[in-house]
Structure prediction request, 294 residues.
Amino acid sequence: MTVKALGYVRIEMRDPQVWRQVGEDILGFSSATAEDGSVRLRMDAAPFRYLIERGGDDRFVATGWECEADAFDRLCGALRDAGVELEEGDAAGCAARAVTAYVAGQDPSGNQFELFHGRTQAEGGFRSGIEGLGYVADDLGLGHAVLPALAHAETSAFYRDVLGFGISDALTLPPPVEGVPEMCIHFYHADNPRHHSLALFNGPAPSGVVHLMTEMRTLDQVGACLDRVKAAGLPITASIGRHENDRMVSFYFLCPAGIPMEVGYDGLQLDWSTFQPTTSTVGDVWGHEYNFPE
Ligand SMILES: [Fe+2]
Prediction:
């Protein structure tokens, strides 16, 4: 295993302030707006975890994966050997991400990913504007991302065999409606104890990402966030529930750009040296009644 964690995500917005407001007021992140209008959202010791860039569209852009300098060189070689076209980040791109070096490419399903090393430390500790709010992040990364992977087998093999992610669970669920294939989600861990930092779903996602996950430190913090989502009138796309595989208690709501956000607590952290990958056919222990707006 060589990828350490999900270090950042990039999102494009015609008006980044719309995302800033939800990030700050609902999720409790802190924010900084740059001269070019881009917004950086912080949730831990990292300089930022969410980069909201100004652009012509509202959409999810890319995941950014963190590794050590030696792993970076090795993984870039492995990616090129696998025929992946890599774009090397320039000085301005590195400065925008607060990293020493990064490359950008696409996985076999067309999801844009970045790989980086040498992130600079943020100045000063993180403090949420919401009293007492804190996250399970830092060495565990920002949470997890579930990506659409229509080329499912190929994309799963790419993250496993080229980038070195470890499989945690393979979940299959009956087709949501008759005549479509069964749903299949592969859950992958990076080199940190979080049950999964990445998951790959064998269906589409209009926003570019199936969902992102933010983990809070207590159930009360999740409940208070649910109250803020309701008060703001934001769409709740899954009621509170507990997942079977990572045991996360969470709910889902819709963030700007149509990006579903899972807000959770109590996700499993595991010792990979003794772990046996699982397969499952049940998504939830209880709850998680899904309700996607048209
Ligand atoms: Fe999730």
About this structure: The chain has two domains: 5-117, 138-287. Residues 219-232 form the longest helix (14 residues).
